[in-house]
Specification:
The structure is a homodimer.
Chain A: H1 20-28, H2 39-45, E1 57-58, H3 61-66, H4 73-81, E2 90-92, H5 97-110, E3 113-117, E4 136-140, E5 147-151, E6 156-159, H6 165-173, E7 177-178, H7 191-197, H8 204-207, H9 210-213, E8 214-221, E9 224-228, E10 253-260, E11 262-263, E12 267-275, H10 278-290, E13 297-301, H11 303-312, H12 316-328, E14 336-344, H13 346-362, E15 366-367, H14 371-379, H15 383-392, E16 396-405, H16 406-421, E17 432-440, E18 444-453, H17 459-479, H18 495-517
Parallel strand pairs in A: 2-4, 3-4
Antiparallel strand pairs in A: 1-2, 5-6, 6-10, 7-11, 8-9, 8-10, 12-14, 12-15, 13-14, 13-17, 16-18, 17-18
Chain lengths: ~525, ~525
Amino acid sequence: MRRWNGWGDEATVVELPAGGADFLAARIGSGRPLPDASLESVLARVPASRLEAHPLITTRAEDRVRHARGQSLPDWLAMREGDFGVFPDGVAYPESAEDIRKLLAWAERQDLVLIPYGGGTSVAGHINPEASTRPVVSLSLERMNRLLELDEESQIARFGPGANGPQVESQLRARGFTLGHFPQSWELSTLGGWVASRSSGQQSLRYGRIEHLFAGGILETFAGPLEIPTFPASAAGPDLRELVLGSEGRFGVISEVRVRVSRLAEREAFYGVFLPDWPRALQAVRSLAQERVPLSMLRLSNALETETQLALAGHPGRIALLEKYLGWRGAGAGKCLLTFGVTGSRVQTANALKQARQLLKAFGGVFTGTLLGAKWAEGRFRFPYLRESLWQAGYAVDTLETATDWSNVDALLRKVERSLSYALAAEGERVHVFTHLSHVYGEGSSLYTTYVFRPAASYAATHERWRRLKQAASRTIVENRGTISHQHGVGRDHAPYLLREKGPLGMAALQALAAHFDPQRRLNPGALLQDGDA
Amino acid sequence: MRRWNGWGDEATVVELPAGGADFLAARIGSGRPLPDASLESVLARVPASRLEAHPLITTRAEDRVRHARGQSLPDWLAMREGDFGVFPDGVAYPESAEDIRKLLAWAERQDLVLIPYGGGTSVAGHINPEASTRPVVSLSLERMNRLLELDEESQIARFGPGANGPQVESQLRARGFTLGHFPQSWELSTLGGWVASRSSGQQSLRYGRIEHLFAGGILETFAGPLEIPTFPASAAGPDLRELVLGSEGRFGVISEVRVRVSRLAEREAFYGVFLPDWPRALQAVRSLAQERVPLSMLRLSNALETETQLALAGHPGRIALLEKYLGWRGAGAGKCLLTFGVTGSRVQTANALKQARQLLKAFGGVFTGTLLGAKWAEGRFRFPYLRESLWQAGYAVDTLETATDWSNVDALLRKVERSLSYALAAEGERVHVFTHLSHVYGEGSSLYTTYVFRPAASYAATHERWRRLKQAASRTIVENRGTISHQHGVGRDHAPYLLREKGPLGMAALQALAAHFDPQRRLNPGALLQDGDA
């Protein structure tokens, strides 16, 4: 059963390893747990629904609780406190495009607001209902999760928009294919959600971002369905896929997605390499990207993330041995862990590995084989579960991410980390901050920063801590040539910063499109574009 | 000096080889040249300009003649006949973004129409002025052709929009870089034009289409400049680069382009391989793309294009010898020539070549080394010059292109070729039609079809032949899951077919954007979007 107030399946627990709490306590002080609310107490607080009955919509309280919040840290705090704020008045479960069209028509007749809902994994407030005089319906696409068609020759799969990661991959795998899109939220997040929020997966180096994988589909709008045909490429004017990609439910409801798939690769492996210091590590990964070494995955942890990972890995004896070996090979204090993957035919993976090893050696890299890579692969979707254990231990953890050009990567990383490290200084609170690069490109890289801090004495004060941290980092990002999001989207949490990135003219163009498709602002109002924008 | 009534530099002549005319005569009858008009006679027909004097605008007749037409076949016919139709009232030569903004303001004050003009190489009627009660100014960006900044670390170059292919590459080469964008029009076409019309270069397999290379820039609009910052990737809502890519001058004037560049490769080579027949050839190139063999260029001629190329290559003795050898190796009648390139480090190119040869061998490919590849590389920008010699010999030649998914490539190719072959049957005229695939993708391929036909007794009747051919093929394309253009854009010639591809809702969205940026329809009206669309 899925957790109602946190990440993932209740049966899955990722323990904080012995020593992990000590490591954090030494860094930012001992943990301070806050009490969790019970589901019963939350259900008791759900107000009466304002909806008239409709066969596709349920107004059951638990459904409304389970669709009220995503997985951002403020969502987390609200769920743990039991103070959810606004609940949707009901949840719709369409099973077809026809159902979606009926719901759009119903929304017009009944003056409703609709929030398209995929896996509910947003970490930027995409699917949270806002207080409204109009009743709000969360439109869950979870029943539209099937592989509808597979063109094996063109390697195009047609899916329902609500298929989550495992549903996408298992249906494709049965036919010998993969989408290759593996965001950390993969267990729960959905194809439609990936498209609507411009997601990127851990193996984007090989398979591309969702922008590349999304070949076409159907967007149900108040003006009728917008069908986007599939072409391998086209020069016929602006690409209408951009009306769907990153639209975050503002222009329409995605009822069908066609994606570019690949045959399952013959071979795949992940490796760990330690670089002696950050400057050399940075140069090494930039070279890997710019020299087009055909890797499928790459993640470079900075020194503090490397240290944190090793401290939280458990097995202190084995780690000490590893560190001794690394020190002897020239990767001591300040070392940075690079994890990379190769995927493809036997020949391709062997060639890629050889090229990568050769290049990394020139930067002082110490190759450690597949052990750490396998460890990464095994834990690749488990990090969100760790949030639960950290929370129980009295620590709040959040992540944020951006991307910038290579000439700015190091400077932006330092500024973002600094802004977070000192954001709670006025209260005398320390923050544990570390970063990795992933999704590297010839032009630059994404930066993914994790910050751990202690809850305050109350939920309200903890939320205020988060607000100060998030605001400090977000401002730093947009004022220093970073995008407000490389892979999480805009939602409500990043919307205030979008103007800085898109400019007034760009925002006005997006508003013009929103007004064109949804003049009554019935679709997810407040996400992506704020009222005051333009 | 650039030809005023055809392609390229007057000093460059690509002779039709001995036997070439015979080959065509046997196919479609002997050539029928039409008389060419003189420049003097055309200059005499240029009407008085309706413009008031402006320091950035010239109203000289020859400037107006040289900016009135592109390089489509109807443009060609108009220029050769000397019946140009509408001339711009003047040509502006801005030297800065500031100049462009002045011209936009002037256009508003004086109620002018502006046509942004790059290299004038459009083959779809992008830059042809339409008859209008408002005076028309062609806004040539040729003086804004400089490399303004190179961020070597991020591999981002900032250019003036008017830099043509040789200007782009020579300025980058001096610093050790390349853009890697080589459309056939490369000698004359410009960076801004590539962006505005979604161009694709011959080595897009390695460097990507212009959509990938275009990282950001500035669009000068009537509502002010839209500055698009560079990010390696972003999830922050719809990508505003799409307001520039494929905008064909409708939303604004590009005043600055930032592109992703690459270090000059250590090694590059092109090879020729003959596949025994079309079905196997098709499967082979699909496998190369879908198995991600890292080639930099690929072109597969169908049997008739292969035959035509060999016939027009000259050297009949050597060709006969080659054909004998190929026949002995299993590639006789019906054989298809595949040209491919590898680019990169020594190790990468060796690996890629090995993978490609191995794969092609499995499909019966006969490898012939670098001779035909070198021949292709040497002639890669010369095909447009051949049009001049064919015209002198009494043949009209035109090309058109589309792209479609692999499962439809063969069927669409046959339908397009058939529609062209029989389009003039009512007059008893034959048409010589052949096709190659290039720009292959995992999902599908572009199809590039060449058709040769004889001019009729008059220019008007010849234009009518072209119209019938173009219409037959264009309808076939959009009715059979092809895009109306993979690399030439929409302009005026393809605009009538765009609705079929984008749908009424998509067209309405584009119209809403055009109305947003240019409510008075001053910018290139009639290109991309027709009056009646939406």
